[in-house]
Design brief:
Strands 1, 2, 3, 4, 8, 9, 10 and 11 form an 8-stranded mixed sheet that branches. This protein has a 3-stranded antiparallel sheet with strand order 5-7-6, with helices on one face. With 202 residues, it is α/β, with parallel strands linked by helices. It has 2 domains: 152 residues, Glutaconate Coenzyme A-transferase (3-Layer(aba) Sandwich), CATH 3.40.1080; 45 residues, no CATH class. InterPro entries: 3-oxoacid_CoA-transf_A (IPR012792), CoA_trans_fam_I (IPR004165), NagB/RpiA_transferase-like (IPR037171). GO terms for molecular function: acetate CoA-transferase activity. It is an enzyme of class 2 (transferase). Keywords: Transferase.
Length: 202
C-alpha cells in the first residue's frame, strides 16, 4: 500500500492518524512525505517500528533510523528534490502525465529518467505521484469536509489531499457547516473521504 502523509518536520502531520496506522499493524508500506521527521515525531515512528518498505522523500537527515535502515538494505529510500517532489504530487492530483524540470540534470537524480532537449536545454521528465491513501491535517474542518489550515502547518497537506484514492483528515477543530468563511477554505470537502476527530480535537 502506498500512503502519502502531510507535514514538514512533524509540523502539520496528522499525528493521531499516524499512531492509528502504527497500531493497525500494517507493514511493507511505501511512504511518500516531504521528510521522515524525527524518530519520535511525524512519520518517524512508522520507520522506527519497521512498518515501511520504501520511502520517497526530500529529506531524511533528522531521523538517523531512516539512514540506518537505508544503509542496511532494510528499506529503500528515494531522495527527490523538494520542489520536484511537491510538483510530482501536484501532477498526480491534477491528473497530469508529468512535468519537465532542469533540476537534477547531470546528477544522480537523472539516472533512469527520460530527458528531452528543448531550445538547446536539457530537461528531465518527472512522472506524477499518487497514493492509495492520504493522511492530512487541517486546522478547522466543517461537517462537509471543507478545510482551513493554520500558518506553516498548511505545507504539503492541500496538495496531498488531491493525490490519493482515499483521503483522511485529522482536524484540530470540527465545526458546523456554514461556520467557515468561504474565502478561507483551502481544500474543498469534495476531495475528503473521511473526517477523523481525535480526543484532542475541539
Amino acid at each position: 500500500m502506498t500512503i502519502m502523509v502531510g507535514g514538514f518536520m512533524g509540523i502539520g502531520t496528522p499525528s493521531r492518524l499516524v499512531e492509528a496506522l502504527l497500531e493497525s499493524g500494517v507493514r511493507d508500506l511505501t511512504l511518500i512525505a516531504n521528510d521522515t521527521a524525527f524518530v519520535d515525531t511525524g512519520i518517524g515512528p512508522l520507520i522506527v517500528n519497521g512498518r515501511v518498505r520504501k520511502v520517497i522523500a526530500s529529506h531524511i537527515g533528522t531521523n538517523p533510523e531512516t539512514g540506518r535502515r537505508m544503509i542496511s538494505g532494510e528499506m529503500d529510500v528515494v531522495l527527490v528534490p523538494q520542489g520536484t517532489l511537491i510538483e510530482q504530487i501536484r501532477c498526480g492530483g491534477a491528473g497530469l502525465g508529468g512535468f519537465l524540470t532542469p533540476t537534477g540534470v547531470g546528477t544522480v537524480v537523472e539516472e533512469g529518467k527520460q530527458t528531452l532537449t528543448l531550445d538547446g536545454k536539457t530537461w528531465l521528465l518527472e512522472r506524477p505521484l499518487r497514493a492509495d491513501l492520504a493522511l492530512i491535517r487541517a486546522h478547522r474542518c466543517d461537517t462537509l469536509g471543507n478545510l482551513t489550515y493554520q500558518l506553516s502547518a498548511r505545507n504539503f497537506n492541500p496538495l496531498i489531499a488531491l493525490a490519493a484514492d482515499i483521503t483522511l483528515v485529522e482536524p484540530d477543530e470540527l465545526v458546523e457547516t456554514g461556520e467557515l468563511q468561504p474565502d478561507h477554505i483551502v481544500t474543498p470537502g469534495a476531495v475528503i473521504d473521511h473526517i477523523i476527530v481525535s480526543q484532542e480535537s475541539k
